[in-house]
Amino acid sequence: MSTRSPKQALDAAVEAGRWSPSVHNTQPWTFAVSGEEISLRADTARRLRAADAAGRELLISCGAALFTMRVAMRCEGYEPAVRILPDPDRPALLATIRPGEETQADEPTWVLGGEIERRRTHRAGFADVPVPEQLIDSLVSAAAAEGARLTPIRSAEAVGVLAALTQAAQTLQTQDQRFNLDIIRWARPPGSTRADGVPADAYPQEPAPTEPDFPQRHYSWRHGWGAQGTPAEAATGVVAVLTTRSDGREDWIAAGQALQHVLLHASAHGVSAAFHTQALEMDLLREFLRQELCSGEYPQMIMRLGVTFDDDKDVPRRPISDVLE
């Protein structure tokens, strides 16, 4: 049983939560500790103004933080007691989590916990190394455990459609000043000391196209930033879509928890994810995907999974003093 105090479990959960993935590394969350309970709150000032007007991606990001805290609390020896959207009169309060009964973390939980600070978002192509089918199956199960569905896209034609829609959305967004301002706001120049956003060395200066091509965000935006020395060719990896049956705030939080479960499990097996949310940020394209490729379920994330060339770069994170109220 646990030899850690509830206070230590709370501290560990908050520290872990800030390492979670978020759209453009916005880290749109704050934590408040009262007694033996953590409140997870949405930092709506960090919402993407054009791309995420409804706050869907913000809540997915916060859902990822919630799952991370659950894992950390189990590793500290306590079963997390969680309430989702506990107060309708406080919409920014997304969840509360507190140490419940003492427990002994099992091996899979320890493995997930060990990846919290090691996991990295990838923003390029992958090495030409296959992802084992057994691992893909386990990632599908990880998403299902959190109430979402992860569907690997097996058909080359369907992969082509997803790539084409991503290309179309990327082209349209680069012509739209509102979307460009979202990118500019969260792109960090070389040498920046900011603790959020996407660093200039976190993506290739000249990305190698995949086949079919899934374009990345133009974080450098005419500045020529980016890491040099990237491969001339890159593999696409396994394309997958994360969906939910309905599309409310609770579903978005569930999608975030499922996403982080998938990412941590994949990271433990040397597999990273590259995200492509462009088409999901345009209502008509997202609805087309829902009807034509997702069997009526709501797409929450499009990703590619694969083995990376090099993903050991430091990731900026806001200090505890910024996120803990």
Automatic annotation (TrEMBL):
Gene3D superfamilies (alphabetical): NADH Oxidase
InterPro entries for the chain: Nitroreductase, Nitroreductase-like, Nitroreductase/BluB
Domain of life: Bacteria
Pfam families membership: Nitroreductase
Nitroreductase domain location: 116-306
Descriptive protein name: Nitroreductase
Origin species: Nonomuraea monospora
